[in-house]
Design brief:
Elements lengths: L1 E10 L2 E11 L4 E5 L6 H8 L6 E8 L2 E2 L5 H6 L2 E4 L6 E5 H13 L5 H15 L9 E2 L5 H15 L3 E5 L7 H18 L2 E5 L13 E6 L2 E6 L1 H10 L5 H12 L1
Parallel strand pairs: 3-10, 3-11, 6-9, 9-10
Antiparallel strand pairs: 1-2, 1-4, 4-5, 7-8, 11-12
Helix pairs in contact: 3-5, 4-5, 5-6
The structure holds adenosine-5'-triphosphate (ATP) and magnesium ion.
Length: 253
């Protein structure tokens, strides 16, 4: 369903992602792991065509190139990114933004009664106050509350492809359970494809991945299943250093 073909990403002429290939089929859950600065978040930004980055290669979603689309057009195709650091938007409430997106998408006025009911029930499931419905987007929210607020958007927008960039960072033990069970419930209902970006092997005790990939210096250096994550937990990312040197040698040939 989503395919990255020979993806290269640069910022100010500095190469961050090198010739990366990745294919994620319908309903699959993939995990991307890697040390700080490996380029994990950059991949998620590239998928959404963040204009800060110079991107080349192909990004294909449901047999269609999306690498030349604007971020809002990409979102309208059914992709959703939960940012590592969700941005605060002053002056626009959750309800205002979500109502606008949904009525634009459905090209009709939405049923406010149903809309509010759905928002209230999601807030309840996420263990956040229903006042969140009318709060400005992520403004003044704690780190954990921001992650839950983004999940409120996810449930309202019903995307088919989800990228969760460090969903677990900043969550206390109870919030981690609430958030992961919300994601599992969403998966059960909608069967989306999910790309999880994380350092924490512990997250994989809550969400079961089909595939695990390791990113080092902008290249994928290992692929496997959950056992690969367990190996990283024991031995760290350092073990992949030699694989990385090999790929650098190849690149310079
Ligand atoms: N806007 C930017 N300006 C300058 N450098 C950037 C920018 N975005 C990314 N980089 C650089 O690209 C590299 C990869 O960053 P990225 O955020 O993708 O790493 P990451 O794997 O997500 O790390 P972490 O696990 O810490 O979140 C880093 O060296 C970072 O400094
Ligand atoms: Mg990151």
């Amino acid at each position: 369903m989503l395919e990255l073909k020979n993806l290269n990403v640069k910022i100010n002429e500095k190469s961050i992602i090198n010739n990366l290939n990745l294919k994620i089929n319908d309903g699959e859950i993939h995990v991307l792991m890697g040390p700080n600065g490996a380029g994990k978040s950059t991949i998620s930004q590239a998928i959404f065509n963040n204009p800060l980055y110079q991107i080349s290669g192909q990004i294909i979603f449901n047999d269609e190139r999306i690498d030349n689309l604007e971020p809002n057009e990409i979102a309208n195709k059914g992709l959703f990114l939960l940012n590592q650091n969700p941005i605060e938007i002053e002056g626009i409430t959750n309800a205002e933004l979500l109502r606008t997106i949904l009525s634009d998408r459905e090209e009709k006025t939405i049923d406010i009664f149903k809309f509010n009911k759905k928002m209230e029930s999601i807030c309840k499931n996420l263990d956040i106050d229903r006042k969140f419905i009318h709060r400005e987007i992520n403004l003044g929210m704690s780190g954990g509350e921001k992650k839950k607020n983004e999940l409120l958007h996810l449930w309202m927008l019903e995307p088919k492809f989800i990228i969760l960039d460090e969903i677990d960072s900043g969550l206390d033990v109870d919030a981690l359970k609430t958030v992961t069970s919300s994601i599992n419930e969403y998966y059960k209902q909608y069967k989306p494809s999910i790309l999880i970006i994380t350092h924490q092997v512990k997250l994989l005790d809550y969400i079961k991945p089909d595939y695990v990939h390791v990113l080092q210096n902008g290249s994928i250096v290992a692929n496997g299943d959950k056992s690969l994550a367990k190996k990283i937990e024991k031995e760290g990312f350092y073990q992949f250093k030699s694989a990385n040197i090999v790929s650098e040698d190849n690149a310079s040939e």
